[in-house]
Write a structure and sequence with these properties.
Two copies of one chain form a homodimer.
Chain A: E1 4-5, H1 13-38, H2 42-65, H3 72-113, H4 134-167, H5 170-184, E2 187-188, H6 195-212, H7 226-244, H8 252-285, H9 292-326
Antiparallel strand pairs in A: 1-2
Helix pairs in contact in A: 1-2, 1-5, 2-3, 2-7, 3-4, 3-5, 3-8, 3-9, 4-9, 6-7, 7-8, 8-9
Amino acid sequence: MAQRHLDPGTAHTADAVLASYLRAQATEFLRALRQHRESGAAGETAGAARALRRAARRISGTLHTFRPLLDAEWSDGLRPELAWLSGTLAQEHAYAERLQRLNEALHRLTAANRGGPAGPPAPRTEREAAPPARETLTLGAAKAAALLDRQLTLAKTRSHSTALGALGSSRFHAVADSVAVLASEVPLRGEDIELRKLAAAAENRLTEAVAALHDTGHPYNPDADTPWHHVRLLLRLHRYAQEVAPEDPASDIRREENRKEDEAAHALNAHRDAAEAAGAAAQAARTPRIAPATAYALGVLHADQRHQVEAARIAFRGAWQREAVGTP
Amino acid sequence: MAQRHLDPGTAHTADAVLASYLRAQATEFLRALRQHRESGAAGETAGAARALRRAARRISGTLHTFRPLLDAEWSDGLRPELAWLSGTLAQEHAYAERLQRLNEALHRLTAANRGGPAGPPAPRTEREAAPPARETLTLGAAKAAALLDRQLTLAKTRSHSTALGALGSSRFHAVADSVAVLASEVPLRGEDIELRKLAAAAENRLTEAVAALHDTGHPYNPDADTPWHHVRLLLRLHRYAQEVAPEDPASDIRREENRKEDEAAHALNAHRDAAEAAGAAAQAARTPRIAPATAYALGVLHADQRHQVEAARIAFRGAWQREAVGTP
């Protein structure tokens, strides 16, 4: 297999830039890992785990986008292992955030029901007054909150154990060894391909996926979320590629694009979080022997989160269309 | 009490125009009543009841807006009776429409869940797949539909009996007698007030109520609906006043305003219908001993209709802002 380890100062520019980025991310990965092992407080551990995931995602994404420049067998072997690792480490945090999101939503929904500013009383001559919706919801919301707390805390605890187990496994040690190799010598193929060309291909894949998005008009269909989740991953790959091979990093246009990509990424994260929170509410509603009021509140909560999914799509569109205008 | 019955051809213009409008509506009321009594088929009866309500609303609204021109005691006595009548006659139709609206929403929600166009499968490496929401909803939707059908059909049947009872009551005969008086001689006070001035006051009340509307940010609070229902009634009064004393009826601006008021009225009707449908879903969820899946589907349905309430407000704002631009 054609493979060349970078000898700094002599290799052509693309290789040097790519190797430097990967070495930096690998070093960051190892630093975060050391910090994770040494940390005592929960907050410290969580910060180290976040840094570990962050570096793992960047290494994995870079191996993917710049694959033609790298030893294919080596990077194809490492990528799924990095995905497994960052996926495993993300779970605990994801459950904690989901619980917080659902608690906030329930609070908002029932606060609304306890009454807000009401206008002047209007004559309702033609129809009889609507039955009070608030009682049904307030009744079930507390029970729904308790049920979600129980289920998501359990899932979080399990994820914590799984993550601890993973970090002690031989599978993880093999990943850490590979990353340690990367920190000293990046397995390059010595191909003469411009980084910008590969970064542009990543951007094209993103642009095409965004163009293929369509509003299905089926706001409650979780299958329709999939292309949006896919765009979220492609946007991430595009942004990592920009980190490796930035296009006019100091220009006003690029700064403006970065700002808008931040907004788009934020909307897609909110989209993912709302979709998964809606799923969690639906799953909780399938718990046997729950009270009807609990199930009712979970139904309202589910629909509320699906509403947020739609709102996130609109926010993404808004950010993205502004970006298209800014593109030279 | 100063009161003058209109002698056509001699009275001043405002009185003549007002009396002519009221006589026409009273005649229409009596025609619809005759038709209602003679009709056999359900469709015919419903059509006659609609015409009866339509005329009753117009007479009542006109007595209200142009009150300074009319015998106050007489019109203040008749107005609540007309409101009682049109309210009583509206119930049956309202329940039938509410049931249809909720059935359509349930159909839409579960059709969405049976799957729509799904995009390409995306890798979901970081988080585990969301639990399937569709099963919970599909399970409960059929039961929720059956429950709503039972409850709203019962309410509709009761309203039908109440309406029949009302039409045979001495209270109704007194209303019909008053309207028959109106068809021949309108009880005018002989005041010299321009119709346009009173119509403008009605328009001002509408404009002020619209300006006082604010988005409460509490989409689930039915109390926040009240000012919107009030605007709906004020828009109706404004439009009836325009029928009595039209402002440049042939002008392009007026035609454009009519079109936009149609849109605004449509949005406010949708707002009212969605708010009441949401209330019906919440009320059904309070039925003792329903299955959790039923309650869950009713929760989703409630939130869906509250979402429609919000959408109707946005639609109203859109129509109304365009109208403001068109106003000279």
